[in-house]
Write a structure and sequence with these properties.
Dipeptide-binding Protein, domain 3; 8-stranded mixed sheet; disordered N terminus; alpha+beta; 4-stranded mixed sheet; 509 residues; D-Maltodextrin-Binding Protein, domain 2; 2 domains; disordered C terminus
Length: 509
C-alpha cells in the first residue's frame, strides 16, 4: 500500500504542469532590450535576452554571455564569450552578434535613450569568434556595466530594414532562459516557454504565463483568488486586508525598494543658504513616525543618496536622526521666534497621495518646533513644467530611484544646475564636483566605491535634501515555489533554480 502511495506521489511530481502565473501592469511596447524603455517591456525582455555581464545576488558584476572579462588598460576591455550558447532558433551565438548589436544601437535608425551610455565607446572589434575588444575614448566608470544590455541575433536582425517597426519586436529571439511561444498581442496574456538549451541549465519551471492586469486592486483580488503565484502588495493590504487563508497560501517577502522620497530645498533662495536652517528642519522631522503612519512600519529611514547595503553606502555612517530640542536651539541661534517663525512652502504632486500625506505629517511635526510649512499640490505635468524645472519653488517633495551603480553627475554635480537639469535645487560643492569628476574615469570598483562613500557623506552633511524614507517592497509568493533566496538585487536573480510543486501534493503526503 505504501509503495502504491509512493508511485502516485511520484506521478504527481513528474507529470504536474510546472507553470508560473505572473502579472504585468501594462502591455509591452517592444520586447527588444535596445528599445525597452517601459517597465513591462524591460521585464519581459529580461526573461528572453542576456547581456555580456550581469549582477550577482550581492550586486557585484559577473559574466553572463561573457565567460571572462578583463581590462588590458584603463581604456581597453576584453570579453571572452561563452562557447556553445545557442539562440532560441538553434543558431550559435558569437562575437558577430555583439558587434552587430552595438552597431545597431548607435545607428541613426534606432531611436533609444540607451545610446547615451555608449558615448564613451570608441570602437568595438571582433578579435575572433569568441573574443571582443572594446576601446573607450577615456576611462569610464560604466565601461563594464553598460554591457548588461541584451544582445540581439545578427542572423535575424540584419535582414530587417526598420528596427523600430520590425516584427521581431513582437516575437523576439534571444539566448535567455525563456522564449516566447507566439508573438504577443496588446493587452493579451504572454506565454513564455523554457529554453531547454539554456547554458547554465534549463529552468526547472517550464512555463510562465504573464497576465496583463493594469489595475493594482484587480491584481490584489487575483492574488486573493490564488490565480497568481506572485505579486506585489502594499502595506495596508499586508496589515489589514489579508487573512489566514491568504497567509497559508503565500509567503510575504519584504525588502527595501529601489527608490526614496525627499524634500529638496531651492538653495538659490537666501532663506535656505545657511546650512543650519536646513539642518534645523531635518532635526525636527521624525522619519520613523512617517514610516509608521504611512507604511505601517514597512520601510526604512533614508539618510543619503545611495542604496543602503551597496558598496557606495558608508557602512559606518551614523545619521543624526530626530532631534527636536537641537532643532529649537538652532532656530533660536538663527533668530527665529514665535513672533517671527521660519516659514516656507513645499510643493508636491497631487496625484501621489502618499507624498501628500507625508507632507501633512511633516507639517505637523515642524509645527512642534515653531516652523510653519505650507503645502501646495499640483497636477504632475504642471508641477514639473512650471515649478520644478524653472526652479519656481521654495521646497519640493519628490522621489528618486536607487541604483546599484549610481551616477551622481546629473543630480549632484554643479554642471547639472541649468535649465532642464536634474540638479534643480542648485546644489554646489566643489569637493563633490571633484570626486564626481574623478569617479567618472575610475574603472576600479573598490576605488569607485570609496569615492562615492565620500560623496555620500558630504551630501548628507550639507542637507541639500532631507532624505525621508525608502518604502519596502512586499511580494506575496506562492508557498509551493521552492528555491527563492532574497538578495540585495531582489528575488528573481535565481529564478531558473526555482521549483514549483503543485497544490494537493503536500496534502497527499
Amino acid at each position: 500500500m505504501r509503495y502504491l502511495i509512493f508511485i502516485l506521489l511520484y506521478s504527481c511530481f513528474s507529470f504536474a504542469q510546472s507553470t508560473l502565473e505572473l502579472s504585468i501592469s501594462s502591455s509591452p511596447a517592444r520586447i527588444n532590450p535596445l528599445l525597452a524603455t517601459d517597465s513591462a517591456s524591460g521585464e519581459v525582455a529580461g526573461w528572453i535576452f542576456n547581456g555580456l555581464v550581469k549582477f550577482d545576488q550581492n550586486g557585484a558584476i559577473i559574466g553572463d554571455l561573457a565567460e571572462k572579462f578583463y581590462f588590458e588598460n584603463n581604456t581597453t576591455l576584453i570579453f571572452e564569450l561563452r562557447k556553445g550558447v545557442k539562440w532560441h532558433d538553434g543558431k550559435p551565438f558569437g562575437a558577430d552578434d555583439v558587434i552587430f548589436t552595438y552597431t545597431m544601437l548607435i545607428s541613426p535608425k534606432l531611436l533609444t535613450p540607451y545610446k547615451d551610455d555608449f558615448k564613451s565607446v570608441k570602437a568595438v572589434k571582433k578579435l575572433d569568434e569568441y573574443r571582443v575588444k572594446v576601446t573607450y575614448h577615456k576611462p569610464y566608470f560604466k565601461a563594464l556595466s553598460i554591457w548588461m544590455m541584451g544582445v540581439l541575433p545578427k542572423h535575424l536582425w540584419e535582414k530587417e530594414f526598420d528596427p523600430m517597426t520590425s516584427p521581431l519586436n513582437k516575437h523576439p529571439i534571444g539566448t535567455g532562459p525563456y522564449k516566447m511561444a507566439k508573438p504577443f498581442k496588446v493587452n493579451e496574456r504572454i506565454v513564455l516557454e523554457s529554453n531547454e538549451e539554456y547554458y547554465p541549465h534549463a529552468p526547472y519551471i517550464k512555463k510562465i504565463n504573464l497576465h496583463y492586469i493594469g489595475d493594482p486592486s484587480t491584481q490584489f483580488i487575483t492574488l486573493q483568488a490564488k490565480e497568481l503565484d506572485m505579486g506585489g502588495i502594499d502595506p495596508l493590504q499586508a496589515q489589514r486586508q489579508i487573512d489566514d487563508e491568504f497567509r497559508s497560501h503565500y509567503q510575504l517577502i519584504e525588502q527595501p525598494s529601489f527608490s526614496y522620497t525627499y524634500i529638496g530645498f531651492n538653495l538659490r533662495d537666501p532663506k535656505f543658504q545657511d546650512r543650519r536652517v536646513r539642518e534645523a528642519i531635518a532635526y525636527a522631522i521624525d522619519k520613523q513616525e512617517i514610516i509608521d503612519l504611512l507604511f505601517f512600519s514597512h520601510g526604512i529611514a533614508c539618510h543619503g543618496p545611495f542604496m543602503p547595503g551597496s558598496d557606495t553606502y558608508p557602512k559606518d555612517f551614523e545619521p543624526k536622526g530626530y532631534r527636536p530640542k537641537q532643532s529649537a536651539v538652532l532656530l533660536k541661534e538663527l533668530g527665529y521666534t514665535k513672533e517671527h517663525p521660519l516659514s516656507f512652502e513645499v510643493v508636491t504632486d497631487a496625484g501621489n497621495q502618499t507624498r501628500v500625506y507625508a507632507a501633512q505629517i511633516i507639517q505637523h511635526q515642524l509645527s512642534k518646533v515653531g516652523i510653519e510649512m505650507k503645502i501646495r499640490t499640483m497636477e504632475w505635468q504642471a508641477f514639473l513644467n512650471t515649478v520644478v524645472m524653472p526652479h519656481q519653488f521654495e521646497a519640493v517633495l519628490l522621489g528618486w530611484s536607487l541604483s546599484l551603480i549610481p551616477d551622481a553627475y546629473s543630480i549632484w554635480h554643479s554642471d547639472g544646475d541649468k535649465a532642464g537639469g536634474f540638479n534643480f535645487v542648485g546644489y554646489h560643492n566643489s569637493e563633490v564636483d571633484r570626486l564626481i569628476n574623478v569617479s567618472e574615469e575610475t574603472i576600479d570598483t573598490k576605488a569607485f566605491g570609496e569615492q562615492y562613500r565620500k560623496i555620500f557623506r558630504l551630501i548628507a552633511d550639507d542637507y541639500p535634501y532631507i532624505f525621508l524614507y525608502i518604502p519596502n517592497s512586499i511580494t506575496a509568493v506562492n508557498k509551493n515555489i521552492e528555491g527563492i533566496k532574497p538578495a540585495l538585487i531582489g528575488i528573481q536573480y535565481n529564478q531558473i533554480d526555482w521549483n514549483k510543486t503543485e497544490a494537493g501534493v503536500e496534502d497527499a503526503k
